[in-house]
Amino acid sequence: GAVVSQHPSWVICKSGTSVKIECRSLDFQATTMFWYRQFPKQSLMLMATSNEGSKATYEQGVEKDKFLINHASLTLSTLTVTSAHPEDSSFYICSGSLAGDVLFQYFGPGTRLTVT
Amino acid sequence: EDKVVQSPLSLVVHEGDTVTLNCSYEVTNFRSLLWYKQEKKAPTFLFMLTSSGIEKKSGRLSSILDKKELFSILNITATQTGDSAIYLCAVGNDYKLSFGAGTTVTVRA
Question: How confident is the model at residue B70 (pLDDT cuts 50, 70, 90)?
Answer without folding.
Answer: very high
